[in-house]
Write a structure and sequence with these properties.
The complex is a heterodimer of chains A (390) and B (407). Chain A has 13 helices and 13 strands. By secondary structure, chain A is an alpha/beta fold. The longest helix of chain A is centred in the C-terminal third of the chain and has 26 residues. Chain A is globular and about 80 Å long. The two termini of chain A are 41 Å apart. Chain B has 407 residues and is α/β, with parallel strands linked by helices. Chain B folds into 2 domains: 133 residues, Aspartate Aminotransferase, domain 1 (Alpha-Beta Complex); 244 residues, Type I PLP-dependent aspartate aminotransferase-like (Major domain) (Aspartate Aminotransferase, domain 2, 3-Layer(aba) Sandwich), CATH 3.40.640. Chain B is built from 11 helices and 12 strands. Chain B has a 7-stranded mixed beta sheet with strand order 2-8-7-6-5-3-4, sandwiched between helices. Chain B has a 3-stranded antiparallel beta sheet with strand order 9-10-12, with helices on one face. Chain B is globular and about 65 Å long. Classes of the chains: A alpha/beta (390), B alpha/beta (407). The interface between A and B is large, with 87 and 86 residues.
Chain lengths: 390, 407
């Protein structure tokens, strides 16, 4: 998405002629449908728990939204949708609220899954970061205590898609619950609760064009969840706190729009693939991580060997191109990616990997802008190295 | 992406418009807050934790400005504010977070595992305490005086050697009474006990100062102060340092106390709401007090036997709670469809149980069932107050005439 710079932006943003946003996995712009839905709700007062007409109107908004979010998963029972403050909270509610003695997570899960319970067991992955099904089977067979298996649908750093249907089948075979963090996949590839086969699914609004501060844990199996937040008994006792009404309305509208426009990702995939081919043509030493696995159509994790990811991201930013150095939440921190480490990527290569993620608004011009900036940096660095060697 | 959000200003006080007097339950978003939030929904949508690029930095800077605005309202350091999804989360985090930290990191031989709170606290405080009881903590639920206030003598007596935390609401959501915060704070500090206050109703409406009141943990809500729903904050004292275990871990945001992508527009909205409330606090309190006293005087004159619940003086400027003798509250609400009033806490207002808060003041079940909460707010006018008095008085007349009375 290339945007001209509006007049009213803060000083630090003035200067660059064109800004190209390719960090859609960190967050996406609000969809017009979400803007419209929130517009009517934001300024309306009313607490959905109140019995007067303001409260009842608010309640209707929440219940209608529940149906739209349920529809994103192929029309599951809307009562299974629990609105929460976002993906991180949803992952916690799933892992803590299900109260299973054993929690097994893949080695490439998001930090919000990795840190939800004190000592999760790790399911190893192969070099493409795909969960090793044989290892999962062995782990579950070895210990008969009640278990929960948590594996994400698609990885936030590499876009690699997990064989969740198979994982769900194995979990079910051992009587284990299956939780699927679908935060990055939702809106980018079709979701079908039946295919995912999960008892619990995590969704986040701001990754699919809804507002930040809202998400859902979808409980497809009517589990008795132990709440994280206790209080007024909202969300059928599964999540206390006054509902974030505009957030919920915006989330629902974005979910509906994302589902309706999922075909746009065919175009996005072509752009992403074009970007990768162009880089391969310029830099034979560049590496795309997870390239041989099934991936989201919008994500590419690209290493420029020998150049720190931080350096690349800052250089690209100076040229007006915004990408990520990994997960957004940890991008302020210095530390190796556990995702790349689990794939067996060497620490040097991992430290030189950036994440480029596209969205429904991405254009050919965005890719060109990125390629110009990336190539210029690559050539500068290689020339510099050549001069040093000489 | 052009912003299509617009604040409808037209429905404030049209003659035909229904009248919203349930401002304790939720408040209307102030148009000025709405305007401040707008750009962060649309143009400046970057993830505020993606600080390696411009969009992210813009969001991060906006969040830090907002943090400063919230901090200023309660005389805190911005670094002492943790953004949350709302007051329910803040209360859960304060109480469980402090208890879990004390258990995980005992500071002395004799553990501190005793929590003292009031029977009239908000459900989310009581429920958090109940959970801690199930985990082996001890909780004292102190009764209140008939006027709704805590007895400081009783509180002092309850502070055992093992006392860890006192949790007392600053201003009450149902009856509006303001607790003696500075006295409670002094008592807690003298005994080495943490003082948490759920200030969702009080913030921005009465002056709060975490230093002079010696408050260690303070919960704030966005949508109770004309800010957005879905955001709140918890004040966590740095000196002397108050330590908590997080409820939500992950990306390590908010100094590890609360992980998850911060919703920039909501944080900005909370900041702006706090700044506006702070700037207007004295004038607005005086205005609301006048309206409240007008409503109280006129309604008392027209409804014989009307009784005010909670202390008459030490209460929030816009808050009233009445017993309408012999008239079931739910019937009165149904009888006044043009005004939004409630039986008490919105969270429990759909239930048929009598208010546990009114019961705690010593009211019988029958009397508690006649309790009505009226909350005036920033957008309430004198005309609306007069209209409400007429509507309520007329409904009382009809209901007593039609045999809507309890007995």
């Amino acid at each position: 998405m290339s945007v001209g710079v509006p007049d009213n932006i803060p000083a630090n943003r003035r200067g660059a002629k064109t800004e190209t946003y390719l960090d859609w996995n960190a967050t996406a712009p609000l969809r017009p449908e979400a803007v419209a839905a929130m517009s009517g709700v934001l300024t309306r007062c009313g607490n959905p728990s109140s019995v007067h007409r303001w409260g009842r109107a608010a309640r209707q908004t929440v219940e209608a939204a529940r149906e739209s979010v349920a529809a994103l998963l192929g029309g599951i029972d809307p009562t299974g949708v629990v609105f929460v403050s976002g993906g991180t909270e949803a992952n916690h509610l799933a892992l803590l609220g299900a109260r299973r003695e054993r929690v097994l997570i893949s080695a490439v899960e998001h930090d919000s899954v990795r840190h939800a319970v004190p000592e999760p067991e790790t399911i190893p992955v192969d070099r493409d970061s795909i969960v090793r099904l044989d290892a999962l089977d062995t782990l579950l067979a070895a210990d008969s205590r009640p278990a929960l298996v948590s594996v994400m649908l698609a990885n936030n750093e590499t876009g690699v898609i997990q064989p969740v249907a198979e994982i769900a089948a194995i979990a079910r075979g051992y009587g284990a619950l299956f939780h699927c963090d679908a935060v990055q996949a939702a809106g980018k590839i079709p979701l079908d609760a039946g295919v995912i086969g999960a008892d619990l699914v995590t969704l986040s609004a701001h990754k699919l064009g809804g507002p930040p501060g809202i998400g859902a844990l979808v409980v497809t199996d009517r589990l008795d969840l132990v709440p994280l937040f206790r209080g007024g008994g909202q969300e059928r006792g599964r999540r206390a706190g006054t509902e974030n009404l505009p957030g919920i309305a915006g989330f629902a509208a974005a979910a509906a729009a994302a589902a309706a426009e999922i075909a746009v990702y065919d175009r996005v995939r072509a752009l992403r693939d074009g970007l990768e081919s162009a880089i391969a043509a310029v830099a034979s030493d560049a590496v795309v991580l997870g390239a041989s696995a099934p991936r989201l159509p919008n994500t590419t994790a690209i290493a420029m060997p020998g150049v720190a990811a931080e350096t690349q991201v800052i250089a690209l930013d100076l040229d007006g191109v915004m990408v990520g150095a990994g997960a957004a939440c940890s991008s302020g921190k210095v530390g190796p990616s556990h995702v790349l480490a689990a794939m067996g990527v060497g620490s040097d290569l991992a430290a030189s990997t950036i994440r480029v993620s596209l969205g429904w608004g991405s254009t050919e011009a965005d890719i060109d802008h990125f390629l110009r900036a990336w190539t210029a940096l690559y050539r500068r660095r290689r020339n510099l190295e050549g001069a040093r060697a000489a | 992406m052009t912003p299509a959000l617009a604040h409808p200003r037209t429905d404030r006080v049209a003659n035909t418009a229904p009248i919203y007097l349930d401002n304790q339950s939720s408040t209307r978003l102030d148009p000025r807050v709405f305007e401040a939030m707008l750009p962060y929904f649309t143009e400046d949508f970057g993830n505020p934790h993606s600080t390696t690029h411009a969009y992210g930095r813009t969001g991060a800077e906006a969040i830090e400005r907002a943090r400063g605005e919230v901090a200023a309202l309660i005389h805190a350091d911005p670094r002492e504010l943790v953004f949350t999804s709302g007051a329910t989360e803040s209360n859960n985090l304060a109480i469980k977070g402090a208890a879990h930290f004390a258990r995980a990191h005992p500071q002395r031989e004799q553990p501190r595992d005793h929590i003292v709170t009031l029977v009239t606290e908000h459900k989310c405080v009581l429920e958090s305490c109940l959970q801690l009881e199930r985990e082996g903590f001890t909780v004292t639920y102190l009764p209140v005086e008939p006027n709704g206030l805590v007895s400081l003598t009783a509180l002092e007596a309850a502070l055992s050697e093992r006392a860890l935390l006192v949790s007392v609401m600053a201003a009450h959501n149902e009856i509006g009474v303001i607790q003696p915060l500075a006295e409670i704070g002094a008592l807690c500090r003298a005994n080495g006990v943490l003082f948490h206050s759920d200030a969702a109703q009080a913030v921005g409406k009465i002056p709060l100062d975490v230093e002079t009141m010696r408050i260690d943990l303070l919960s704030i809500s966005g949508h109770k102060i004309y800010g957005p729903k879905g955001v709140g904050a918890l004040y966590v004292r740095r000196r002397p340092r108050v330590r908590l275990l997080p409820l939500i871990d992950g990306g390590g945001q908010e100094r590890g106390l609360r992980s998850g992508t911060l919703p920039t527009p909501l944080c900005v909205g909370l900041g702006r709401a706090a700044a506006i409330a702070g700037a207007e606090i004295a004038d607005e309190a005086a205005r609301l007090r006048r309206l409240r006293d007008r409503l109280l005087a006129n309604l008392t004159r027209r409804v014989p036997g009307l009784r005010l619940n909670g202390d008459a003086e030490r209460r929030l400027p816009g808050s009233l709670n009445f017993c309408f003798p012999g008239i079931e509250a739910i019937k009165l609400i149904e009888g006044c469809p043009s005004i939004a009033i409630s039986t008490g806490s919105a969270c429990t207002s759909a239930s048929v149980e009598p208010s546990y808060v009114l019961r705690a003041l010593g009211l019988s079940d029958a009397d508690a069932n006649t309790g009505i909460r009226i909350g005036l707010g920033r957008f309430t006018t004198a005309a609306e107050v007069d209209f409400a008095v007429d509507a309520l008085a007329a409904a009382v007349g009809r209901l007593t005439g039609e045999g809507g009375a309890l007995t």
